[in-house]
Amino acid sequence: MKATARRSAVWLVTAVWTAAAAQDARVILLGTGNPNPDPRAMGPAVAVVAADRVYLVDCGPGVVRRAAEAGIRMEQLTRAFVTHLHSDHTVGLPDLIFTPAVTGRLEPLEIWGPPGLSALVSHVMSAWSEDMDVRLNGLEHGVRRAYDIRAHEVKPGEVYRDTVVRVTAIPVRHGSWRYAYGYRFEAAGKVIVISGDTTYSEALAAAAKGCDILVHEVYSARGLARRTPEWQRYHSAFHTSGEDLGRVAAEARPRKLVLYHQLPMGETAEEVVGEVRSRFDGEVIYGRDLDVIQ
Predict the structure, then answer these.
(1) In contact, 177 and 84? CB cutoff 8 Å
(2) What region, left, alpha or beta, does residue 204 occupy, with left being phi > 0 and alpha being psi -120 to 50 degrees?
(3) Which has the closest alpha carbon to 33: 262, 285, 195?
(4) Is 133 helix (H, G, I), strand (E, B) or coil?
(5) How many angstroms separate the first and last alpha carbons of the chain?
(6) Does residue 71 come out as left (phi exceeding 0), alpha (psi in the -120 to 50 range) or beta?
(7) Strand order, beta sheet including 292-293
(8) What gap in Å lies between CA 241 and CA 220, rounded to an integer?
(9) What is the pLDDT of residue 23?
(10) Strand locations in 122-281, DSSP E?
């Protein structure tokens, strides 16, 4: 009886631990790159995973292949949030729409993002209309619901909520873009904030205050100083330097700061992290594709 009771207790503890682990929210970096075609760093894309649900932020080139490499199933790719409509953040949208539709997705794909998203989705669907006709009405007999793409254009504030997660859009400054957002996820007792592309943002720092994980873009100020004046004006208006990111992090005090959409401009990862640490003394992670952060 004692052995049976002991085995039952061990099974119960294991079951509880497994369930807790499944509920734990985590970040998977599916793409840490930028418009430069680096095969080691796909275009910007982040997966927030909680309770077996996957919430994508942006869909840069390579997003679906990286998701598969990370162990994400195609049927899980049903929710995505777009920060802004720059090509390096959205050129993977046709991939996200059509690849899972023929390889396992059974439900509609819902996408939230700034004004202009609906037109982008409409044009993509029109461009691949013949492909859909052949797959749905030919010998393949495709899953019609998998091609139901629902675009939601949103304003700052709460944009989505289900039994697992609450998502808030944060307005950020990204050069001449009229609409650019970061996103705050509250899931499984954690707060995860993803910057998208932005300059130094007080709104983002406030939204990230005390968060567990802040995933933020960065460029090297030292590297930029070697670029032409035109490029210096561009990057300083559209992106965040390592020093300014250190300021954001010092205000927000995230438990973990993760760098993505990196523009080192000839500097090493250690040198970029050093710029951030000149203002912030917390944990800083120079993200790599497929890193998992909890």
Answers:
(1) yes
(2) alpha
(3) 262
(4) helix
(5) 40
(6) left
(7) 149-153, 109-113, 79-81, 53-57, 45-50, 26-31, 292-293
(8) 6
(9) 54
(10) 149-153, 157-161, 165-171, 181-187, 190-194, 213-219, 256-263
pLDDT band at 22 (very low <50, low <70, confident <90, very high): very low
Give the least confident one: 22-31, 205-214, 234-243, 267-276.
22-31
> Which domains are seen in the chain, by residue range?
24-293 (3.60.15.10)
With a pLDDT cut of 70, the percent of the chain lying above it is 92
Residues 6+ apart with CB under 8 A from 55: 47, 48, 49, 79, 80, 81, 165, 167, 185
4 pLDDT tier (thresholds 50, 70, 90): very low
Confidence grade of residue 107 (pLDDT, cut at 50, 70, 90): very high
Q: Identity (one letter) of the amino acid at 201? A: S
At 95 the three-state DSSP class reads: helix
* The residue type at 116: G
- Token readout for 64 is 């679906």
For residue 101, give the 3-state DSSP assignment: helix
